[in-house]
Design goal:
Number of domains: 1
Distance between the termini: 56 Å
Order of helices and strands: HHHEEEEHEEEHH
Number of strands: 7
Number of helices: 6
Structural class: alpha+beta
């Protein structure tokens, strides 16, 4: 009888844990991606210290989003050398700043983004790119700037923003060479 009571109590405890901590209560991959993406597009550069000592119109962050038939890859680089890569269908890498090659590539990407701000327009909306499209978002304290182009056009160096596209791919290459992404 004692063993039966222990078994019933154990089953009740396990059932309670399953109900309280069931996986479907966790955020979906898509919700996590959307949350991280919006945080990157809206957090304050001044409050985080990224824009300390720079003009309000100077770039301190850049995001490059690559649309494909399976989802969107979002690359984020900041002036301190931080870099993250998120996938809309789940997964990614956060904080590449620990690796010198990523840190240097991220800083270079932000620097190149600053050179192309005049080719961009101010935005307060942040749609995801369609398949085959690339969207850039440049973060400054005076607002977010954006531009969009076709991936083929950028890759074949037929667009004014091709150097920015290649600087972003420099960060992705650094992630690959460190083994953080395949």
């Amino acid at each position: 009888m004692l063993y039966l009571t222990i078994a019933v109590v154990a089953l009740l405890v396990m059932a309670t844990l399953v109900v309280l901590y069931r996986p479907w209560r966790c955020k979906s991959k898509k919700a996590m991606y959307s949350e991280l993406r919006m945080q990157a597009l809206t957090f304050s550069g001044r409050a985080s210290g990224l824009s300390h000592g720079v003009q309000s119109s100077q770039a301190w962050g850049v995001m490059m989003e690559l649309g494909s038939s399976v989802g969107v890859a979002t690359l984020i680089s900041l002036s301190d050398g931080s870099a993250s890569l998120y996938y809309s269908n789940g997964g990614g890498v956060i904080g590449g700043i620990a690796h010198e090659s990523i840190r240097n590539a991220a800083k270079q990407f932000v620097s190149v983004a600053g050179q192309y701000q005049s080719k961009m327009s101010t935005t307060t909306t942040f749609p995801l790119p369609a398949a085959g499209r690339v969207v850039f978002y440049v973060r400054t304290d005076s607002g977010v700037l954006t531009a969009e182009a076709g991936e083929n056009e950028l890759g074949e160096r037929r667009h004014v923003l091709s150097p920015l596209f290649y600087a972003g791919h420099g960060v992705i290459t650094a992630f690959r060479t460190t083994g953080l992404i395949g």
